[in-house]
Design a protein that fits this description.
Keywords: Cell membrane, Membrane, Transmembrane, Transmembrane helix, Transport. By secondary structure, this protein is mainly α. It has helices at 3-14, 17-23, 26-43, 45-48, 89-125, 127-141, 145-159, 162-167, 169-196, 200-207, 212-220, 225-248, 260-268, 277-303; strands at residues 70-71, 77-78. The protein has one domain (82-308): MetI-like (MetI-like fold). Helices cover 71% and strands 1% of the residues. It has a two-stranded antiparallel ribbon with strand order 1-2. A hairpin with a 5-residue loop joins strand 1 and strand 2. The longest helix has 37 residues, at 89-125.
Length: 310
Amino acid sequence: MSLTGVRHTAAEWWQSDIAYRFRRSPIAILAALVGLALLAAALGADALAPYDAFDPAAANAADARLPPGSEGLFGDYYLLGTDPQGRDMLSAMLFGLRTSLLVGLASVMAAGVAGVLLGLVAGYFGGILDAIIMRAADVQLSFPAILIALLIDGVTRTVLPAELHQELAVPILVAAIAASFWVQYARTVRGLVLVERGREYVLAARVTGVSTARILLSHILPNTMGPVLVIATINLALAILTESTLSFLGVGLPPTQPSLGSLVRIGNEFVFSGDWWISALPGLLLVMLSLSVNIFGDWLRDALNPKLAT
């Protein structure tokens, strides 16, 4: 697309109803700005972080558990203090923010793709496929998401060697969280497909010989993306909190891969020693991230609901 086309598309979006509602919602604007700022900080962690949180040589045990604003033994300045390993908290939080966002986004994408495809198949074909997929969804809904993630993580720890499990910690965590969230996409898309498959444009496509895959992906799927986008936005905050919960429980990412949850877990062991910053600062960052995504998701849900349009 040319630059002129991009400008034209951007101008059209700016004049749309959803953009108008966005401009009239200060809370949504604030949530979007906070979320974008945190995303930029995570992506720019290599440039913004004073030290490399993944480099063991950057951690100095002599500077462990220093409070915010302290100077280290060798003259290093730690704006937000250090953790029990002597790592700079600011660097660890930036890299941990990147890890939490990476796991959250990847798990939401994986759950969305799997759930949307299963919902399309269940709603369009019906019959035994619909019954199997929906009964599997009903069974999964009877278990908490965190319990399913713990089960998958426990099975992989039993099957895989410890070193290999540590190397594959991020993909395993993404798969565990995605397996907990696909049901919402599948049930929502299935309901929408049941409505859309009887519409005239779908019947016309069948008569003209359009393939089933093209009908599903090119005709029906675009009409289901609004609710899917809302679910994905809200589930992003849930996925980040799930990753943090698993890491806090010690079954998520290893200590060598800092995430917001693992930083809170490490700091929790030293709260009663007066080292509050190790747990409080990553926890505050986690609250800001989850709250901004949740608020924006709630606004997006209301903005895309025609019954609430004003």
